[in-house]
Amino acid sequence: MIAQEFIEANQEYAANFSKPKLNRRNVLVVTCMDPRIHPYEQLGLKIGEGGIVRNAGGSAEDAINSIVVVQHVFEVSQIAIVHHTDCGATKFTTEWLRNKVKEANPGRDDVAQTIDNMDFHTFTDAEQSVRRDLKYLAENPLVLKGTSVTGWVYDVETGKISQVDEVVV
Ligand SMILES: [Zn+2]
Questions:
Q1: Is residue 71 one of the residues assigned to a domain?
Q2: For the chain, what is the domain count?
Q3: Which residues have beta carbons under 5 A from ligand 1 (an ion)?
Q4: Most buried residue among 86, 100, 104, 152 by CB atoms closer than 10 A?
């Protein structure tokens, strides 16, 4: 079971542990939960330096709570949105997932109502979804004026990132 694997792996980790310095850089990265994504290595961040929010697809809308926290509590003024090729969020739609959840819960109006109020921010093209998130953040009144939002696509085939755009809010 995974719990036992975690306990064993952590024993090894803790045995060689050196406490990282908290050396916060002025950036929050929002990216996908895909296990092929390693934002620290791929972007040259070290542990202790930059906050990372991960969710399905790397959605900025999904990450907005954390964005408000880093901006107001830690005064972070640079946000990077990093989506990637071959993303799981391109392989289904919100409508499809809503129906799947409803089928798994027949007769449950509470489930149907809850899932119908959720949006999974799926997409077909990573560059377009990055632009959608940049627009979303630029128009969100909670994002501080002067915030730099950069948008990127990470290619899982080559390991390369390419910048899509930058907006200053
Ligand atoms: Zn993904």
A1: yes
A2: 1
A3: 32, 34, 87-88
A4: 152
Cβ–Cβ < 8 Å for 168, 148: yes
Distance CA 111, CA 9 (A): 37
Side chain identity, residue 37 = I
- DSSP conformational letter for 16: T
State what percent of residues in the chain have pLDDT above 90.
Answer: 98
Give the phi and the psi of residue 64 in degrees, each rounded to 5. Answer: -60, -35
CA dihedral in degrees (62, 65, 66, 72; nearest 10)?
150
Query: What length does the chain have?
Result: 169
3 state DSSP class of 115: helix
The answer to whether the annotation marks 84 as part of a ligand binding site is: yes
Look up the CATH number of the domain holding residue 139. Answer: 3.40.1050.10
What pairing do the DSSP bridges indicate for beta strands 78-84 and 148-154? parallel
Domain residue limits at 41: 23-87+123-168
Residue 89 CA to ligand 1 center (angstroms) comes to 6
Backbone angles phi, psi at 83, to 5 degrees: -100, 175
**Helix (H, G, I), strand (E, B), or coil: what is residue 71?**
helix
> From the CA of 165, how far away is ligand 1's center (Å)?
19
Q: What tens digit of pLDDT does each residue of 1-49 get? A: 899 999 999 999 999 999 999 999 999 999 999 999 999 999 999 999 9
Residues ≥6 apart with Cβ < 8 Å to 127: 83, 153, 164
